[in-house]
Task: inverse folding
């Protein structure tokens, strides 16, 4: 079977750096995606890692270690608008994603 | 460019009633998906389609049916609604060349009483 683990909640202050971890167990692994979802809104794509290493997109970066079945999303210079839920999703051979349960990020002033 | 549009946005049903949720995308995407989202459960795949006329079961297909008669539309049907189907339903689509990126609709909030 498959499983993904990510923390249910993370809190941080404005301007800080926060890391949201995701560990997974699956067969036929292709890559790891991250999505952001604000309360009442639709999930939006943030990043995708197919290879080991760090992918940077502005204030957001995503990391993958295939040998450790582990990835993380790094958010820098936190802003209040970053308060949202963040989902990791494993992409397998059919490119059908399996989502984690999500991490609620709360940014305090 | 509207992207992915879901109708209706809200609906209340009585147990046993039927309804159809419509998803339409104007990006010419081949892949389309239906998810349900419940508190603390993340997004769970109900059914998906890799092209016009094709459908496949996802993680939680029981109680739902789908059809993809036109490339731009993906319908989700509930034949006999149950309270356990109270949820937020999201449709998504992706391009075959970038299947790892999904574009989501705004969601349909369904309550079954």
Result:
């Amino acid at each position: 079977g498959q499983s993904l683990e990510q923390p249910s909640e993370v809190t941080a202050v404005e301007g800080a750096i926060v890391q949201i971890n995701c560990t997974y167990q699956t067969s036929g692994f292709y890559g790891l995606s991250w999505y952001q979802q604000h309360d009442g809104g639709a999930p939006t794509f943030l990043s995708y890692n197919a290879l080991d290493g760090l992918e940077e997109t502005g204030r957001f970066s995503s990391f993958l270690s295939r040998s450790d079945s582990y990835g993380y999303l790094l958010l820098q210079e936190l802003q209040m608008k970053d308060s949202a839920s963040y989902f990791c999703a494993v992409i397998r051979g059919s490119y059908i994603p399996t989502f984690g349960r999500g991490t609620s990020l709360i940014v305090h002033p | 460019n509207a992207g992915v549009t879901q109708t209706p946005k809200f609906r209340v049903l009585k147990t046993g009633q039927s309804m159809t949720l419509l998803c339409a995308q104007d990006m010419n995407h081949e892949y389309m998906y239906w998810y349900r989202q419940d508190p603390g459960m993340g997004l769970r795949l109900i059914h998906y389609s890799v092209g016009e006329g094709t459908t496949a079961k996802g993680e939680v297909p029981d109680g739902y049916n789908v059809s993809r008669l036109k490339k731009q539309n993906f319908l989700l049907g509930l034949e006999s609604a149950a309270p356990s189907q109270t949820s937020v339903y999201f449709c998504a689509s992706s391009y075959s060349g970038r299947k790892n990126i999904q574009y989501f609709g705004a969601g349909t909030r369904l309550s079954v009483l």
Observations:
- The two ends of chain B are 36 Å apart (CA to CA).
- The first strand of chain B starts at residue 4 and ends at 7.
